[in-house]
From TrEMBL:
An annotated Gene Ontology molecular function: DNA-binding transcription factor activity
InterPro entries reported in the protein's UniProt record: Homeodomain-like_sf, HTH-type_TetR-like_transc_reg, HTH_TetR, Tet_transcr_reg_TetR-rel_C_sf, TetR_C
Annotated HTH tetR-type domain residues: 19-79
UniProt name for this protein: Transcriptional regulator
UniProt xrefs under PROSITE patterns: HTH_TETR_2 (PS50977)
Species assigned in the record: Azorhizobium caulinodans (strain ATCC 43989 / DSM 5975 / JCM 20966 / LMG 6465 / NBRC 14845 / NCIMB 13405 / ORS 571)
Pfam families, per the entry: TetR_C_11, TetR_N
UniProt keyword Transport, yes or no: no
Alphabetically ordered keywords of this record: DNA-binding, Transcription, Transcription regulation
Length: 193
C-alpha cells in the first residue's frame, strides 16, 4: 500500500487507482446483489466482475462481509439534505418517515444486516449512526436558525432512530406514519420545561 492510501472501510484518497478500484468493486457488488441471492456471492465472483484480483479485495476489505458492510454504508449516505418543511416537527417527521420506509424495505433491511454483521466490530455500525446523526444535525441547525429549540442529538437517535431499527430487525410489529409521529412527539416533549 502506498503512503496516503487507506483501506476501503476507513476511506480512500480522492481520485487515483484506489478510487477506481473501490468504484469498480462497489458496482460489482451492487450488480451481483441485484442478480443473485446473497449466499451465491463470493469474493472471487466480485473480483471477476470488478476486473480485480481476489487478493485486492482481501487486502482492502478483509473479507466478503466487511466488503458488503462498506457497500451498504456507501448506499446509506444520502444524496441530498433532508426535506425542509418549515418546522422542526415537520422536518423530523418527514426524515424519520423516509428513514423508516427506506430501511424497512428488503434492500434497506439487508443493508442494516450487512453493517451489523461486519467482522470489523462496531466501526461500520458507528459510521451508520454518524450518517443518520449528520442528517439530524442538518434538521436541528435549520430549526435553531428559525429560533426553535432543538433536542439533544443522542436523545433524538435513541428516541427516533433506535426504535425504528429495533422494529425492523427484531419484531414484526408494523410501523407507519402514525408511529413516526409518536416517536417525534415523544422527542419534542423533552424540550418542554
Amino acid at each position: 500500500m502506498r503512503m496516503g492510501e487507506e483501506t476501503g472501510r476507513k476511506g480512500l484518497r480522492p481520485g487515483g487507482r484506489s478510487a477506481r478500484v473501490q468504484a469498480a468493486v462497489h458496482a460489482a457488488v451492487r450488480d451481483l446483489l441485484a442478480e443473485r441471492e446473497r449466499g451465491e456471492i463470493s469474493v472471487p465472483l466480485v473480483a471477476a466482475r470488478a476486473g480485480v484480483t481476489p487478493s485486492t479485495i482481501y487486502r482492502r476489505w478483509g473479507d466478503l462481509q466487511d466488503l458488503l458492510a462498506d457497500v451498504a454504508l456507501e448506499q446509506m449516505r444520502p444524496d441530498t439534505d433532508p426535506a425542509e418543511t418549515g418546522t422542526l416537527r415537520g422536518d423530523l417527521i418527514a426524515w424519520v418517515d423516509q428513514y423508516r420506509e427506506e430501511m424497512s424495505s428488503a434492500p434497506g433491511t439487508a443493508m442494516i444486516r450487512d453493517v451489523l454483521a461486519s467482522l470489523e466490530g462496531s466501526d461500520p455500525a458507528r459510521q451508520c449512526c454518524a450518517i443518520s446523526q449528520a442528517q439530524l444535525s442538518v434538521i436541528f441547525a435549520r430549526a435553531a436558525a428559525r429560533g426553535e429549540a432543538v433536542p439533544d442529538l443522542d436523545l433524538a437517535t435513541d428516541l427516533c432512530i433506535a426504535p425504528v431499527v429495533y422494529r425492523i430487525l427484531f419484531t414484526d410489529r408494523p410501523m407507519d406514519g402514525d408511529y413516526v409521529r409518536t416517536l417525534v412527539d415523544r422527542l419534542l416533549m423533552s424540550l418542554r420545561p
